[in-house]
Amino acid sequence: MCSLEKRGRVYVLSLTGDNEHRLNADLIAELRSALAKVRTEYAAAPEGSALVTAAEGRFFSNGFDLAWANAAGSPSASRQRLSSLVALFKPVVADLMSLPMPTISAVNGHAAAAGLMLAISHDYTVMRGDRGFLYMSELNIGLPFPPYFMSLMRAKIADPRTLRDVTLRAAKITAAEAKARGIVDSVHAGADEALQAAMRMGEELAARNWDGGVYASIRMAAFPDLCRAVGLPAEEKAQTFSSKL
């Protein structure tokens, strides 16, 4: 479901297989395990590093596994299953927000709902331009946004009109439009080119050899509302760090 390897100074976390990469309990657990391994290895040998998250096939991620949730047998049971996925995914965002290194997502195709949340939980996002779109489907399928989804979108989508279109129009945004609106940082010809661009950026950032603890502290201080929404006491961490100066 996912794999982790290190290429030079860059960790590459890949969603594997030619499928929709639906976020179910198993995939979420594998993502958290991979991120924990990255954190542990960095702690054992702190050096300039970066993380690139990519995916195989036509999709980056099509969001939560709604088929599994809807198979529960009753509306209330389905809601409980979906709520469990919402709760399980929140620590993934927290893991990425507190990871002691720069992070980059390489979006190879559609990134919808929780899949888009996964992409923009990274510091940088690059995207292929020949296919795929970004899309928050909740309005069209009659689901409210989890509060931490809204915090993440407010943190990472600066233009209020773009935020309106993403949340209140359920707009499907192409790579070119996402670049123009500031959601992604760069657009590339295809999936391979997007991954190569993410790897180049990862190598460049890792070569700066920044202190990972300082990097994570600054990131969390930059997005305090989001950090609080996912259970990271960003302000306390920033104050603790400041007290050591």
UniProtKB/TrEMBL annotation:
Pathway(s) this gene product operates in, as recorded in its UniProt entry: Lipid metabolism; fatty acid beta-oxidation
Recorded catalytic activity of this chain's protein: a (3Z)-enoyl-CoA = a 4-saturated (2E)-enoyl-CoA; a (3E)-enoyl-CoA = a 4-saturated (2E)-enoyl-CoA
GO BP: fatty acid beta-oxidation
Enzyme class at the top of the EC tree: isomerase
Known EC number: 5.3.3.8
Pfam families: ECH_1
Protein name in the entry: Delta(3)-Delta(2)-enoyl-CoA isomerase
Organism listed in the record: Ensete ventricosum (Abyssinian banana)
